[in-house]
Specification:
Elements lengths: L4 H19 L4 H8 L3 H8 L7 H10 L4 H5 L8 H7 L2 H5 L9 H10 L1 H17 L4 H15 L5 H13 L10 H10 L3 E4 L14 E4 L4 E5 L5 H16 L17 H18 L2 H12 L6 H10 L4 H16 L4 E8 L6 E9 L19 H14 L7 E9 L5 E10 L7 E9 L2 H6 L10 E4 L19 H28 L1
Parallel strand pairs: 1-3, 6-9
Antiparallel strand pairs: 2-3, 4-5, 4-8, 6-7, 7-8
Helix pairs in contact: 2-3, 6-9, 10-14, 11-14, 12-13, 13-14
Length: 505
């Protein structure tokens, strides 16, 4: 259940009643007796669950020293303003609380019970958002990641819909997937007209992978500069929107503006549908069993497996994050996507997912320099060099055991990297990292291959204590600051202990 306009009106009314009652030092029972209501009904009003009839509102207004118009007005005083502002915000109204197991009525009760504390909490969140320049869509995408992580990124209902689609349309899902099947269904079943030239030739729009103009005839414009694997994914995703009867959605492949969480969630669902359709679960699980049973790491074989399914590196590794937790018990993992930028030695973490905990590494919003020892960045650099010399032939696979400084955690990280399609002088890498634990060692036989390098890594250069790092991109300013604080704290503790000992003498 999402917050509705009616929920907001009830909550504002209830907050006003409670505030005025407390100002007059009345208990709920005293107010109930004065206006001829049950105390339980007063309690429901203050929690934002009930809204009384006009004659009862008049009675409440008289007893609380105000008037009818003030009570039913949506205007509030300064003390309640921050809470009401967040309640009426698009994020709060659109957020699917039930999806996260949150009972909307209980949340309403919490706000009603402690509006001042809630106000302080809201103001804290708002200040953090301002300081880090966080926008509405940042909250939406963070919520989506949390939703995926709650479910170990495996959604049986979408897997079942893919199976139903395959059976209904008699789809041949054996690799390589036949694109013409999807084109025919879009045209004949969903009345689509496909155009590969219009946005390709428009300089202002050719940054989009696709644009849908819905109508009696759905006109679907696809960028002809895309790789074949990208085009088939877009077609499969469009099938997903239609087959799952998704209405609330973005009509462009790249976000122009995120207006609702529902759009973000539905975009994910359609993408998941496409992944599951293009990489069949049954076939892929068999291939993974065989691959993980190898005693030696084989990067070329991994690329061959990806090319067998004719998908992009991102689609390939995303499918791993769907299936490995559910069928292999490997749920302590993360997924990262890195791009390099036009500025030399600048790298951007553009997508992340963490299952069973907030694993390292993760994104930071304070312009720190990500550790250059990560395999994600090393592979970006390698592919960029190959591309610049004309020696790039196909995606490159890399592997590394990453041991975090000052931590017991060690991860086996597998990375696939390639040049960006529209900017081949830049590169993109996707990485899946597995916490090396007992279950992982059982499942992945090559984890201890002696040819896999082991590297000490950290979050960022600014926080790293490693003194002999050959690829450091920035001075360890935060680490040094922390050391100074630790030294000062130790000296202070020592001083206080000496004073205590002197007092005992």
């Amino acid at each position: 259940m999402n917050f509705t306009e009616e929920d907001s009106i009830k909550l504002i009314f209830g907050l006003k009643i409670k505030q005025l009652r407390q100002t007059k030092n009345l208990s709920q029972q005293e107010l109930a007796d004065a206006v001829g209501m049950a105390v339980s009904y007063i309690n429901e009003i203050e929690k934002g669950k009930k809204f009384p009839k006009p004659d009862k509102i008049n009675g409440l207004a008289k007893e609380l020293g105000t008037n009818y118009e003030n009570l039913v007005s949506l205007k509030v005083n300064k003390a309640l303003a921050p809470a009401i502002e967040i309640i009426n915000s698009p994020i709060f109204k659109e957020f699917p609380l039930d999806m996260f197991g949150i009972d909307a009525s209980k949340l309403l009760s919490m706000i009603a019970e402690a509006p001042i504390k809630v106000n302080a909490f809201i103001n804290t969140l708002a200040e953090i958002a301002r300081n880090y320049n966080l926008k509405q869509e940042n909250f939406y995408f963070a919520a989506l990641r949390s939703y995926q992580e709650m479910h170990n990124n495996y959604f049986e209902d979408i897997e079942k819909q893919v199976e139903d689609f395959i059976n209904e349309f008699n789809i041949d899902f054996t690799p390589r997937f036949d694109t013409s099947q999807l084109v025919t269904i879009l045209k004949e079943k969903y009345n689509y007209t496909l155009d590969y030239n219009e946005i390709t030739e428009n300089p202002k729009l050719n940054g989009f992978r696709s644009i849908l103009v819905p109508g009696d005839e759905n006109r679907f414009y696809i960028n002809n500069n895309l790789r074949p694997t990208q085009r088939i994914f877009i077609l499969a995703k469009e099938i997903g929107f239609n087959y799952m009867k998704i209405k609330e959605r973005s009509y462009t492949s790249s976000w122009v503006k995120v207006t609702t969480f529902e759009q973000v969630l539905n975009n994910f669902k359609a993408s998941y549908f496409a992944n599951a359709l293009l990489i069949n679960k049954g076939l892929f699980l068999t291939d993974l069993e065989e691959y993980f049973s190898k005693e030696r790491w084989d990067g070329e074989a991994l690329v061959d497996l990806m090319l067998k399914y004719y998908v992009s590196p991102e689609t390939f590794l995303h499918r791993l994050t769907n299936l490995l937790p559910e069928y292999f018990g490997l749920n302590s993992l993360f997924f990262l996507r890195f791009n390099d930028g036009e500025t030399p030695n600048k790298y951007y973490l553009t997508k992340e997912l963490h299952l069973s905990g907030k694993h390292n590494p993760h994104a930071n919003q304070v312009n720190e320099h990500y550790c250059r020892r990560w395999i994600s960045i090393t592979m970006l650099q390698q592919v960029k060099a190959l591309s610049q010399t004309g020696n790039y032939k196909r995606p490159k696979a890399g592997i590394q055991r990453s041991q975090y400084i000052d931590s017991k955690n060690e991860y086996l990280c597998i990375t696939l990297a390639r040049p960006l399609n529209r900017k081949p002088h830049l590169s993109s890498s996707v990485t899946i990292g597995f916490l090396i634990n007992t279950e992982f060692k059982k499942r992945v036989k090559f984890w201890n291959d002696k040819n896999i390098s082991l590297k000490l890594v950290n979050e960022s250069c600014e926080r790293c204590s490693l003194t002999d790092c050959e690829v450091r991109a920035a001075q360890p300013v935060f680490y040094k600051k922390q050391q100074e604080t630790n030294t000062l704290e130790a000296e202070l503790n020592s001083f206080m202990e000496r004073i205590k000992q002197l007092q005992l003498m």
